[in-house]
Amino acid sequence: MEQKHPLPPFTLDTARQKVQLAEDAWNSRNPEIVCKAYTTDTEWRNRAEFINGREEVKAFLTRKWEKELDYKLKKELWSFTENRIAVRFEYEWHDSNGQWYRSYGNELWEFDEHGLMRKRYASINDVAIEMSDRKLS
Questions:
Q1: Which Gene3D superfamilies does this entry report, sorted A to Z (predicted)?
Q2: pLDDT tens, position by position, for the chain (137 residues)?
Q3: DSSP 8-class letter at 55
Q4: How far apart are CA 83 and CA 8, in angstroms?
Q5: Phi/psi zone of residue 48: left (φ > 0), alpha (ψ -120 to 50 degrees), beta?
Q6: Is residue 46 a contact partner of residue 61, using CB atoms and an 8 Å limit?
Q7: Which of 76, 85, 101, 137 is the most buried (most CB within 10 A)?
């Protein structure tokens, strides 16, 4: 059976580790790598979009990083329970016209017993910024 360590139940240390692993994977901007952290039947809400299953996640991420260029993400653990983690995050990116944005949000994650994420609910807002205002690099 596929496993993605650390496994639940989470402690403060393993929850922080899970968040850092997610940040590292997303900063790779590689949909093949990122989608392996999710169950094959994962359920997502990303902004107003509903995504079901690992293959839809991969397609979504491919579209995302074709639009959100030079993407850089920072996640922070907000809270956790046995198999759930809440994070806050911000990321910066620019569009094909060179306009930079900082996106802020919160995610609620639920994991199965194998450490794969089965649910991800994300609320995200974008703010246009000047390149000189970037904080992440």
A1: 3.10.450.50
A2: 799 999 999 999 999 999 999 999 999 999 999 999 999 999 999 999 999 999 999 999 999 999 999 999 999 999 999 999 999 999 999 999 999 999 999 999 999 999 999 999 999 999 999 999 999 98
A3: H
A4: 5
A5: alpha
A6: no
A7: 85
Give, for 113, the enclosing helix (H) or strand (E): none
* Residues 6 or more apart in contact with residue 87 via CB below 8 angstroms: 19, 22, 75, 76, 77, 78, 106, 107, 109
| Residues paired with residue 120 on neighbouring β-strands, in sequence order | 44, 109
Q: Do 101 and 95 meet the contact criterion of CB atoms below 8 Å apart? A: yes
Q: How far apart are CA 54 and CA 36, in angstroms?
A: 8
CATH architecture of 12-133: Roll (3.10)
Phi/psi for 36 (5° steps) reads -70, -10
Radius of gyration for the alpha carbons in the chain, expressed in angstroms and rounded: 15
